[in-house]
Amino acid sequence: MGAQTLPGGHQTVALQYQYLDLDKLSNTELQVSDEALHSVNAFSQASIGYSLGITDRVTLSVVLPYVSRDGFREAEHEHHDETDETEQHDEEAVDTHHEEEAEAEGDVFNSDISGWGDMSLLGRFALHKDQSSKHYYALLAGLKTPTGSTNEKLSNGEKAEVDHQPGSGSWDPLLGVAYSTQISAQWSVSSNLLYHL
Predict the structure, then answer these.
(1) Which alpha helices (H) appear in the chain, and where do they start and end?
(2) What is the pLDDT of residue 100?
(3) Around 180, how many Cα atoms within 13 Å sit in the side-chain half-sphere?
(4) pLDDT at residue 102, as a whole number
(5) What are phi and psi for residue 26, nearest 5 degrees?
(6) Nearest residue to 34 via CA among 70, 71, 69, 84
(7) How many angstroms separate the Cα of 97 from the Cα of each of 55, 87, 93, 103, 108?
(8) What pTM was computed for the model?
(9) Among 164, 39, 165, which Cα is nearest to 108's?
(10) Which pLDDT value is given to residue 180?
(11) Looking at residue 106, what is its pLDDT?
(12) How far apart are CA 3 and CA 192, in angstroms?
């Protein structure tokens, strides 16, 4: 994300695609773990963005992503009281470990979770006064809105956990800074820090 702002009245449309091929856990690893582990084959996100130059120093942007988690798998675990479970692990750590390795319990559910994600609104405010400079600085401020889907279900009919849903269901402020430098007429280098509350 660069620090350059659009000239007032100008607008752009941007498309972005992100794909991550992830390491996978086996069904046995999911079943024997004491933790609520999950495995995802691949994560992808396609986003469409629109930006409008309000003035030469202020640009407003809207980004809407479509999120996919392919090959999402997790094992069904029985929930125990946390205190009792801790005491049992302290007393029978070795025996329990061997028993879990010998016997994997619980079905593994395989699902593809996808849907529209949360739309983000972001303002870029130029801190540099000279538009002809080769160095650009900007303040970033915005809001992530709860427009994404939060009702996606697993293959067993249960709703996926909140952190696995395409949308978060929450309003989250965004705040950051950006810097860009012009290397040549065709090339520039940009970096940014964006904090998501």
Answers:
(1) 27-32, 82-91, 93-102
(2) 44
(3) 20
(4) 36
(5) -75, 165
(6) 84
(7) 64, 14, 6, 10, 20
(8) 0.71
(9) 39
(10) 94
(11) 62
(12) 8
Could you tell me which residues come within 8 angstroms of residue 68 by beta carbon, excluding any fewer than 6 positions away?
42, 43, 44, 45, 112, 113, 114
Q: 93-102 vs 82-91: helix axis angle to the nearest 10?
A: 100
Task: Walk along the chain (197 residues) in steps of 10 and give the mean pLDDT of each run.
Answer: 90 96 81 75 93 95 94 67 49 46 58 90 89 85 94 80 86 96 91 94
Position 99 scores a pLDDT of 44
Q: Are strands 108-116 and 58-75 parallel, antiparallel or unpaired?
A: antiparallel
* Count of positions (residues) in the chain: 197
**What pLDDT score does 77 carry?**
57
Structure-token pair, residue 49:
């963005």
Name 168's Cβ contacts closer than 8 Å, sequence gap at least 6: 118, 144, 146, 148, 150, 162
Q: What is the pLDDT of residue 74?
A: 77
Distance of CA 182 to the CA centre of its chain: 30
The rounded distance, in Å, linking the Cα atoms of 194 and 175 is 6
**CA distances for 90 relative to 86, 94, 186, angstroms:** 6, 9, 63
